[in-house]
Structure formats: C-alpha cells, structure tokens
Amino acid sequence: MTGSNEVINPEIIFPECQKRHIFMLLMCAGGFMGAFTYILNGGVFCNAQTANFVLLAIALGQGHWKNALYYLLPISAYFGGTVLSEFFPERLKQQGSLRWDTVLVGIEIVIILGLGFLPETAPFQITQIAINFIASMQYNTFRQARNIPMATTFCTNHLRQTGIYIRKWVKTKNSETGKRILIHLAMIGIFVAGCIICTLLCPVFKGKAIWGAEIPLAIVFIDLLNADLKEGKSQTGNHK
C-alpha cells in the first residue's frame, strides 16, 4: 500500500485503465447517469444501493409488500453486476483477448445506446435496473487510479478521502498528500459537472439525453482499446 508520506515512483508504468483521465471521464459519465435517473426515471439514484435498502426497509415497516419486492430487483441487478464483473476478467485473461475494463465500457456504451431508444412511455424501472447493473460493474472494475483507491459512480468515497488527507496534510504538510486532496476534489467536481450537463440536456432531449453519457464513455473505450491492441502487438512481437 502507498502511505500518506510515500511518493509513487514516477518510473512505474501503470496500465491505461489506471490513468487518472480515464477515471475522470468515467466519473463524468457516472454523474450524468445519476442525474438522468433522478430527473426522468423515478427520482432515485441508481449509482449505489443505500437508498434502495432504505426504501426496502421503509416498505417492509409500512407493510407495503409489493413495493418491498420491487426494491429487490435493482438490488439484485446491482449484485449481479458485481458478481459478473468478478468472473469475466479471469475468463478474458485466459483467452488472451481484450482486457475486461475495455469490454465493460463497450457494454456500457451499447446498453446506454439502447436506453436512449426507449419510448417516453416505457416503465422507468427498465432504465433504473439497467443503470444499476452497469454502475455496479463500473464501480467494481475501476477501483484505483495509479494506486489511489477510487470510485467512479458516486462521491462519498472521495469526500471521505478528502477529509482524511486534509487531516494528514495539516499534520505533515506533505506535498504528495496535498496532491491526493486535489485529485479527490477534482473527481467530485467532475461528477457534479456531469450532473449539471445532464440537467441541462434532459428538458430538451428527454430520454435521449442519456446519450450524452456516450461521449466520455466513447473516449474511454477508444483509449483502452488502442492500449489493448498495442499491448497485443507488443506481446506478439516478443514471441517471434
């Protein structure tokens, strides 16, 4: 682990999926999706599951059994996404194909494209469950950027990390700790920016506004795919 006073070796070559710009783009998409489900799809946040567990408990406490059963659907979708994102990376690695990180972003692009084609009269639960599923896989797949623990679908972790590192910086005045504070604050700011952009687009484009999330995801996908192809060519050359 990297301690608060330990500077990351600048000579370490990190995989493309750990580059900070990748996480920032994913964070923007995460903010966009969070605002989209809240504004147009039931007034809920699908990027995490705490709210669904609270609503499940309230429904049980009030004896609303059908409502309680419904909340098991998004929770199960989120859980299923986590499980699948644990199994797929190893299988792809064994086959020597693209990295799971790249494949996942491609899956997200396809699902979001499909959601944009849904009619405005479609049940909002379809979008909720779909975003629960992909947000879970994204959160569980992109875990750290250059050895710094990260989340790309919500801000709670970044707010917590900012508080932790402010306390350490006050005590040590370490420059690396100061950089960590700025990184986590930047992630929060980019998440908020994604939410703002979605808020501006939703009244104009309605359900098709979700396609706005395709822009940062497409940039990430092209970047990761290019890195995978270069790595594949390099490995082929080494075997000649």
From TrEMBL:
Pfam families: DUF1275 (PF06912). The chain crosses the membrane at residues 21-40, 68-88, 100-118, 181-203. Keywords: Membrane, Transmembrane, Transmembrane helix. This is DUF1275 domain-containing protein. It comes from Candidatus Gallitreponema excrementavium.
